[in-house]
Amino acid sequence: xxxxxxxxxxxTSATEPREGWRAAVGDFILQRPxxxxxxxxxxxxxxxxxxxxxxxxxxxLTTDYGAMLSAPGPxxxxxxxxxxxxxxxxxxxxxRTALMVGLGASLIGAVFGALIGVGSAxxxxxxxxxxxxxxxxxxxxxxxxLALAVVAxxxxxxxxxxxxxxTPMVPRCARVVRASALAVRETPYVDAARAAGFGHGxxxxxxxxxxxxxxxxxxxxxxxxxAILLESSLSFLGLGVQEPTAAWxxxxxxxxxxxxxxxxxxxxxxxxxxxLAVFGFNLFxxxxxxxxxxxxxxx
Amino acid sequence: MKRLANILALVSxxxxxxxxxxxxxxxxxxxxxxxxxxxxxxxxxxHREETFGLIHPFAPFYNTLLRVDPFDKGGTKPAPSIAESxxxxxxxxxxxxxxxxxxxxxxxSEMTSKDVKASYDKIIFPPQGVGxxxxxxxxxxxxxxxxxxxxxxxxxxxxxxxxxASLLSPYNFIYKADILAKDMHWYETNIMGTGPxxxxxxxxxxxxVGKKFAGYWDKGMPYLDGFRAIFMRDSAAQVAAVRGExxxxxxxxxxxxxxxxxxxxxxxxxxVQESPWDCILMVGFNHEKxxxxxxxxxRALTLALDRHTGSxxxxxxxxxxxxxxxxxxxxxxxxxxxxxxKLAGYWTDAAKSRAEAKRLLKEAGVPEGFSFTFSNRGLPMxxxxxxxxxxxxxxQIGLNVKQNVIEARAYFGVIRKxxxxxxxxxxxxxxxxxxxxxxKFLSSDRNPANYGRYKDPVLDDxxxxxxxxxxxxxxxxxxxxxxxxxxxxxxxxxxTLQWHRIVPxxxxxxxxxxxxxxxxxxxxxxxxxxx
Lengths: 299, 531
Description:
The structure holds two protein chains of two kinds. Chain A has one domain: MetI-like fold. In chain A, helix 1 (about 5-15) runs antiparallel to helix 9, helix 5 packs antiparallel against helix 6 and helix 5 runs parallel beside helix 14. In chain A, about 75% of the residues lie in helices and about 0% in strands. Chain A is mainly alpha-helical. Chain B contains 17 helices and 17 strands. In chain B, a hairpin with a 3-residue loop joins strand 8 and strand 9. The longest helix of chain B has 18 residues, at about 1-20. The two termini of chain B are about 35 Å apart.
């Protein structure tokens, strides 16, 4: 009896021929240059976030009332805001907030979405019907409205913003994963696992979930860019990350709006950072989808 | 020679005209004043409401017993309105007001003491089910009497230093007694007063229109043919309306940036009036939460603020400016700057102040990097800039402060529960008067709006004494002692910076003087337009 699970595991793990990661990266860059550009932007953002303490010329929270609303120049490369805080330093530290919220929300959205999607597909019948109707309810609300509702209930702050952004992502992820999981459910190794008497949890987690990882990874990558944009939107509306935390969306509100004409750098550079980050994640996500989607691969 | 004489006459005339105060220039009758109002009231009843959204568009339809002198920039000088004179008995327990004769309601009937008594009875002794927001301010009144048609008498339970000031409330509209006798709620949905303008229409969410009352008691007034108040919540739209010369004035306030933009765009077509504003944001400490029950910690937090530098910097980006105690700077009971600067947190040497703050924190056992949450209200101006400023100031004494911004409508509900540690609190008065401005700080068993949850009988006693003091100098002294205890010795609350009112308006508008209160000076009888 011990032979069957080994066979099943072997089946799941032996679907792709293995190559060196350097070769894979090289192929990705050559075949998908736009995706590589996106990856470069993401890597730059990660590097900024990781080494913010070293790279940022000033403490992002320190005010300097003698340098309020200073234009970009040698002292402050990207200028200062209405409190005399260095815009460049706040952008560099803001990448941490963006990545933290983006990764956190994507991770939570993807994990819960995957579990719900695979579980729904696996159990099928009434469970699937009920779960999918609940997902339909969530789909009825635009993403930003759902996030706003969650923030209104939970309150502001980084943790709550992550949950608020993850919430609308869960049903979308669940729907995509369910579609893949329905096909996986019918595969012989799942039947074999059932026949071997494995519990639902083991079948879902060890046999089905790994086989829907490709669409899950694509969704999670696409979510990252969207999560950064959503975090910026919530912060801009005053419902996301709160002052004095360095966050790109937050840098766009308040005095940045009021002084948009006389001190455009306050809004321009954080806006540029948001655009670049979202652009990078979207490029990378699209290319990843193309690379991992078997239908596109065969074409 | 004659030509030279003419030129000289013209020049001297121009010089004289330029030197005269606005209200002394020859007023011109006619025209419609247009002004945006950022808020709309729930009802028309001044006795019940507490928003400037009622005062700005609806005060011109009414008179009050007394008013603040419309040309007093301090906004505290009593002036006659429908009472032409008043006297107080030597023991300070009876105030007698002589009413003007010939004051007409808009329905043509004469206003008499019966109407004043009915209005004040409604304010001070409202029947069950009738709302009167400010009746607590008249708790000292024993009775209101109307011994004859043109005399009104208020009998007090004890002498009061603030009674006359309390009658200057712009909300105390004089209503018609016969209408109140039939229906005490009539004025919630209807308008009919003795004011300089009669009601034409109110289109909800859009505008209010008033036209000149031909039978107004003050002959020759009002100067305007009418007014149009336009409800406009968005501040950018209000600024655009003034900039586009579609509105003459917004009576509340604009930001420093709006002022600068309007001035740059319109030059001499814009006149700017500014004043310290009788509104202030204060920081409250929940005395039931550790370590904020320790006055050394509270004192350290106020010592951390460099108010003088903050004033210079923040006044460029926010509607705050003056460094203040419990009274608006420049008003009769305000502490002079040199004396105020002796209080904790008002010292001019910020380094010394912060060194003392650090010492106090150490003494209180608060470790370096101690973290707490500061609750702030989710309104951009001036809550947000003040929040950022204070958090930065507290960082400079080694504290790590996280800001929790709570949605504006839900804010006071959350603070009232007592969960917040350190929080932003707010006070805004319709007139600068110590009784009104200091009531906020009384012990929690006397004032439920004291969210600091402390009891201080000494402070309460000082409040009562100053309230009863009829001698100006004695009252000033008591107010100073109150202020020192509140802000320096006990630091139950700490002041941020006084709000600063900025009203850039069309230079065509004359006869209107800014005061520290955006609730005052909206009867519009003295206002006129140059063209």
